[in-house]
Every structure is written in structure tokens, then in C-alpha cells.
Amino acid sequence: VEAVHLIADGKAPRIPQPKEGATYEGIQKKENAEISWDQSATALHNWIRGHDKVPGAWATIDGQVVTFYGSSLLDASVPAGQELAIKGASRPGLVTKNGLVVFGNDGKMVLVRNLQFEDGKMIPASKYFSADETTALELTEEEKKMAEDIK
């Protein structure tokens, strides 16, 4: 009751909270989420995972900002895949059937499952080199007839 009366009378003490020991980090910004490649695989995974979904950890690939989503540590032998140069990385990533494998400075691997481009398009990382390919839809004779009936 006494504390309520002090507040009501405007006489309650005001003690500023010290900054030391504070754990609040504030809102992360996209420009601060660039991946620094000179770290262990565990640190890379934690960085990508920690920025998943907002703002999204990113790197520059082929002159374009690409955001990485869905990382996991990969504890296996180096898989077969197509090399992908990533700006700042000491070794190229590998586009495999399961996703994009990137390497920490300890030689261990991180698997990234999804990539998002600057235009907002998101693809499975395993489809990086086939992202621009389009497949023409071919209809059977029966489907062509049905399409005409619908028109």
C-alpha cells in the first residue's frame, strides 16, 4: 500500500536499470546479419539458425544477396555436389541433392535447406543451379480436348 501511495504522490524513487548484465539485444537489422565465414561450422549454424526467419542470415553469391534458411550441422563425409562460389568463404559451397553444404573454418559442414533471392523468390537450396530452368507443360490429347471444352 505504501508503494502505491508513493507512486500516486509522485514521490517513488526512480532507479535506472544498469546496462551491465542486460540480455536484451534489440531488433536485428538485415545489414547486420551478413554471414562471417571465418568461424567454426557450429558458429555458422548458430548464426544462420539465430537469424531464421527475421532478418535472415545472408551472403553474396554471383553478385546477389542470398538469404540462408533452415540450417543443420552435417556430420558425415563430404557429399558429392556442384561447387558454388560464395563471397568471403575460404572454400566454395556444394549444391547437393539435400541442399547447400557450406564449410566452417574447422573443416566441418553445415547443410542449408532453403535460399531466398533479393526478389523474394525462395527455392530449395538443392535446386540452385536449376532455378532458372522452366519445364514446358505437355498435354495429352485427352487433356487438350478437356482444355478446349473448358475454354
From TrEMBL:
Entries under InterPro entries matching the protein: Formyl_trans_C (IPR005793), Formyl_trans_C_sf (IPR037022), Formyl_transferase-like_C_sf (IPR011034)
Domain Formyl transferase C-terminal: 29-130
Pfam families, A to Z: Formyl_trans_C
Molecular function in Gene Ontology: catalytic activity
Name listed for the protein in its UniProt record: AL1L2 dehydrogenase
